[in-house]
Specification:
Largest sheet of chain A: 8 strands, parallel, barrel
Mean pLDDT of chain A: 91
Structural class of chain A: alpha/beta
Helix content of chain A: 40-55%
Number of strands of chain A: 12
Oligomer: homodimer
Distance between the termini of chain A: 72 Å
Chain lengths: 502, 502
């Protein structure tokens, strides 16, 4: 008898987020749902900050309606979301009752599993959201953001897991968003958590595939006792995305571990997304290969391209190497935050400033906030001199309390503002949309009635958006089929002329 | 202290063979050689049947000159080649003294490690070549082609390894050309060989990455004691190629195993091929993702596209499913040959014939030869009725001797024919080129003096041959922005005409 390893399918959220800039329309996911629902997954991740943002920013889709659609289309599946702790799906801390309300509404609309994380791994930023999930009776998953630094030891991570477990989390997730989790620490972490929290402590493992090592890390995590691993159907996998679901199934064959997945269903899901993906080629991640440099630089690929463009704007495109060398120093000064959104941008921009203007001669407001505790606690002590500079710069004091403790009740004000927006239907869901994305929500609410806008190239024949193997280039090379209208000016006279193949 | 795991770098042979149709020119590999030579590889694979063929067929490069160049450019490295046993680098059996001469010449020109395999795993087809290698004092590596069938058990493979070891092979290679080697059999095979042949029996593991599971198989093979694993630098890896070298290095970090590779050198090699590869985009493998269907169908992707085009030529493009179902039956009738070149084509074509014309109503000459023992012995018994049909079709008898025993000395005749060709310089190397590829060699020898022809798009700016990330396709697709001026002549009068979008 094999031990069952369960699988969370990522295609509907992190898969297309990592590979296709989160642009996939609901109508392109819906046809795969019947197979996904019957394939035997433990859960189906389908909602999160970026998908919510993309829905209202680019797709004119109501994210709550998307959630309700998934609920209908996946009646037998656990729906799973990624929640940024006290930030919910936005980019700032929310006052506690907004957190409560968001979680309630998500549960009410069909969410089953809440994966709750904080970019700094400050447990105080997770507590309220986890508590809210527990009140709804849904699955509360406490998350550890994996990173590498002199202070990030297996012991510290295991301690954090124990704390999350003590708070009553239904499971612990090891979340490796930068593909830094090598096989040995994957094994040690899972083993450590199981030993400290008990064999019945559920451990989920989420890895990306960027560095090419994490398929092995999943295997070692499973050998150490991981209960659930995340993967994405092969046609939406690899590169900055995830390991392919079908390969996880096959790798376990004969090992004493097995998934419950139905391979025929997986093939259908794969074929569906293989057909859909080329239409989103213009949004595709530029680099789909393997990058291992991040192990040494600790700088995610996306962060490097951000810094490059900042430098170019300043006419200092040749100073990237200096900036790359500065990043680890800034990170150390800031107490070794994991480098993920938003800390990666904050640290990266400050490193650019330091190189261009001298160390901490100028400081972004966000970096000052990071140094002064307004994002939460970091694992390491922050450099005292830089803290002093941050105080002077921001004219703010250092805080040691939970950042959200500084916030006053804000729901009524958010509600009043939202209700004033044209198109707002007065629901709590609409107020939450406004609360999450106050810049984007007004335009979305006003245009919502026009219905979803699919941004893929629906008209293109299958595969047309990918480079043809014969190198002949895109459709534009084909001869013009019908008449084309031109304005032709001869001397000073203009003519409307139509031209068509003779 | 970590146990050292050695690495064979595949970029210069199987890497570009699997990803870029073997088209890479020597001049595009040469600049990476200094770093490759210093990176700490156990060996550098750089020569084989397809590279030899491609050199004379497409690149107007003398393959022997290429070998001598590698010898000069990689003075500290073991050069490694892939040799098809009694077929050498061609597509038929050669008489024994031709085998001897080829091996001698390869050793003389700088080859160090000979990986010798036979598509049917018939050890009799390996014996002479291995013996010839041993006489030169070079490294003789006996190879097991890994495949899946009801008869291909770990025990049978281990028995074959023991036999190769008894013949004095310096090492054993497990060669998984179709990415079918899952972690558990990888572990069992290496363990089995080490137990049966002794801990000092060197085991090398060669896998492709097509199915997405083999990085884990390499890890498990290492855990079982594998001495050397094969990989390809990341910018020439994945898809139908191999696992990325840098990822193998990183995966081992902290595990108690380590490579001797220099990461700075690897980064330079990676960057070199990342720059070169886009110029070969027109030759790039169409599918670079993960395919796991082969585990069930046992039909490699390349074989499916072959069968599809055969069916289409017959106006039977809709019958692929029947053919796919027929392949395992034909394979069983033929005694379960591994499905690799040439057996995959032979079995696949016969399956097409069976579906279109009725089972074995027609038979290819090659399939008849396979059934009658002219390619060698298969692991399983061949179907007696089909053997009878093959005799009738081919008007030949069944043989049980080693196929090459039927051949008469042929060197003198080959030499006479080769020397008659314009451009032949009379060397044994030229005679061997003619012997390997009698159809292609005459044209090559005649044009050799013109020098190498690089088939990459040298003129294209970096990355131009890849699909642009914004999806805008070839230049032709962009709309004309401003007015365009033409001189239009109607009859004998010329007009200045400007045209712009209406």
């Amino acid at each position: 008898m094999s031990r069952v390893v369960d699988i969370t399918e990522l295609a509907l959220r992190d898969g297309h987020q990592s590979l296709l800039a989160t642009r996939m329309a609901m109508e392109d996911m819906a046809p795969a749902c019947a197979d996904i629902d019957q394939a035997g997954y433990w859960s189906v991740e389908c909602w999160g900050g970026a998908t919510y943002d993309s829905c209202i920013r680019y797709l004119n889709e109501d994210p709550w309606e998307r959630l309700r659609s998934f609920r209908k289309l996946l009646p037998n599946s656990r729906l799973q979301m990624l929640l940024r702790g006290q930030n919910l799906l936005g980019y700032r801390h929310y006052e506690d009752t907004v957190v409560d309300r968001f979680v309630e509404k998500a549960a009410e609309n069909g969410m089953d599993v809440f994966r709750v994380f904080d970019a700094l791994n400050d447990p105080r930023n997770l507590a309220r959201a986890l508590e809210a999930v527990r009140r709804t009776g849904k699955h509360a998953q406490g998350t550890i953001c994996y990173t590498i630094s002199p202070l990030h030891t297996v012991e510290r991570f295991v301690d954090m897991a124990a704390r999350l477990r003590d708070w009553g989390c239904d499971s612990i997730c090891i979340k490796d968003m930068a593909a830094l989790l090598r096989p040995q620490p994957a094994y040690d972490l899972v083993k450590g958590i199981k030993e400290k929290c008990g064999a019945d402590a559920r451990v989920h493992v989420h890895v990306h595939s960027t560095t090419g090592v994490t398929m092995v890390s999943l295997m070692w995590a499973i050998e150490a006792g991981a209960d659930v691993v995340d993967s994405s159907i092969s046609s939406l996998s690899l590169g900055p995305g995830h390991n392919p679901t079908e390969a996880v199934v096959e790798m376990l064959e004969g090992t004493g571990y097995a998934t419950k997945l139905d391979k025929d269903r997986l093939l259908k899901i794969k074929e569906h997304f293989a057909k859909v993906r080329p239409r989103y080629a213009e949004f595709e991640s530029k680099f789909l290969g393997v990058e291992t440099e991040i192990f040494d630089s600790q700088i995610p690929g996306g962060m490097i391209s951000n810094m490059e463009s900042q430098l170019k704007q300043q006419g200092a495109g040749d100073r990237l190497k200096e900036v790359l060398a500065e990043v680890p120093k800034v990170r150390k000064d800031a107490g070794y935050p994991p480098l993920v959104t938003p800390s990666s941008q904050i640290v990266g921009t400050q490193a650019v400033f330091n190189v261009l203007m001298g160390r901490y001669k100028a400081m972004t407001g966000e970096f000052a906030d990071l140094m002064l505790g307004y994002y939460g606690e970091t694992i390491g002590p922050r450099d005292e001199k830089v803290v002093e500079l941050a105080k002077a710069h921001a004219k703010k004091e250092l805080i040691t309390t939970r950042p959200a403790d500084l916030l006053k009740p804000e729901w009524e004000e958010l509600r009043t503002q939202a209700l004033a927006l044209p198109g707002c239907d007065g629901s709590d869901e609409d107020v939450l949309t406004y609360a999450m994305f106050p810049q984007v929500a007004p335009k979305f609410l006003a245009s919502r009635a026009e219905g979803p806008k699919n941004v893929s190239r629906k008209a293109a024949p299958a595969g047309a958006a990918q480079a043809p193997a014969d190198g002949s280039g895109a459709a534009g090379k084909k001869p013009v089929a019908g008449p084309v209208a031109y304005k032709v000016t001869i001397g000073d006279r203009s003519h409307q002329v139509t031209v068509e193949p003779a």
